[in-house]
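Thanks for the sequence, V.! I ran Major facilitator superfamily (MFS) profile domain-containing protein right away. Repeating your input here for the record:
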Amino acid sequence: MEVEFPAYTNDSEQQNFALPVDSEHKATEFRLFSIAKPHMRAFHLSWVSFFSCFVSSFAAPPLIPIIRDNLNLTATDIGNAGVASVSGAVFARIAMGTACDLVGPRLASASLILLTAPAVYFTSIISSPASFLLVRFFTGFSLATFVSTQFWMSSMFSAPVVGSANGFAGGWGNLGGGATQLIMPLVFSLIRDIGATKFTAWRIAFFVPAFFQMLTAFSILILGQDMPDGNFHRLKKTGEKPKDEFSRVLYHGFTNYRGWILALTYGYCFGVELTIDNIIAEYFYDRFNLKLHTAGIIAASFGLANIFTRPTGGLISDAMGKRFGMRGRLWALWLCQTLGGVFCIILGLVGSLSVSIVVMIIFSVFVQAACGMTFGVVPFVSRRSLGVISGMTGGGGNVGAVVTQLIFFKGSTFSKERGITLMGVMIIICTLPLFSIYFPQWGGMAFGPSSKKVSEEDYYLGEWNSKEKDKGSHHASLKFADNCRSERGRKVSSSTIPSDELTPQNI
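Predicted structure:
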């Protein structure tokens, strides 16, 4: 028997929230300029904290011409450090996803931010290529806060607007990758103008991102809330949120093939973005003989485009979901990311400064919008293992960055322009597996819903066994399934006949 839940809670429950909510108390509207507690406050805390981690992780690249002279860094040293800066977060993101499932995004995020802040401070005292690599490696762990950001938004916002919430939170956080291209050269110049030598000024400059990072962590702990109804600890203590088995959460995450495909494709949108953040300032500085500040401004335009590109990707994903369902979300993602690959190829081929800048900006629009569209799909892969799937996908972004930098931008095997072109080819190839993602209740890019009339309840309840259902552990999944009916799209009949319970991993 299919269980129906009302779209909204009763008046006595709903009046506790400033935004309209669904049966899970997730907001059904996304009001960008509101700071209403708990939904919009969580949004602003998440993107600002992720922004601070991006600033810290990519504070070094815009100052590389100065740092490399001070530490006698070779091209290989710089390439290795670039790889190190994104490799640490590969496993950290997977771990972060699991931590979010178990202790909530608030504690998981703040803890990681505080643990990695010392590495940013220690950058000011490094004296060798090895120590430069180590501080970039440990600072890069902080990028795993992306996973807690996306988990937090998926816990606070309902299906029709979750893509927009994820897109804005991730996009505005990613702004840090562009903002640091402006911030660090400016801070460096101010410190040098006060009287410090250039080899001292760049070291002092790292105290700014380190302090900012710590400040955001304390803000999350003091002002944040895990879920609409409270923090994980209280909800588990009162029994409002059943305690889940760690092994089962991992199992249903790792055995869902859709998560692995999204991890691969995310490696060639967000992974490409991380790669560009590491190389683009030096690329323009060396290829077009620009001043450090000028190269930083041009490089910043790539990351700063996130103020609208990634959020636009989330908005488009939600719009396509409302009109065409999940199939529309997948088609939009494939098309956008493929066009990003095309413009990446062109960027490596053009030799004019002005044309390169224009192509780079167009490239940034598509590749960053694809990031937003990816996390318009992720929340629907699994209800029970949302954190694990988010961590897998986020970690895939870092794996893509590591692999791409190792192949194309480590040492002198390829020129940077040649590496950029080949990276574009990789984007197009690694986006093709999106065609194999299939949801039996909604369909995929090539085929419609299953002829077995699989319902949303069939898909999400497949993650729970009979004993767990007897305990009532599956109730949240039932509500989530009901709130996901919008993913059928306007063109799909709203009526389904539930079939026998099927596992979402094997359907």
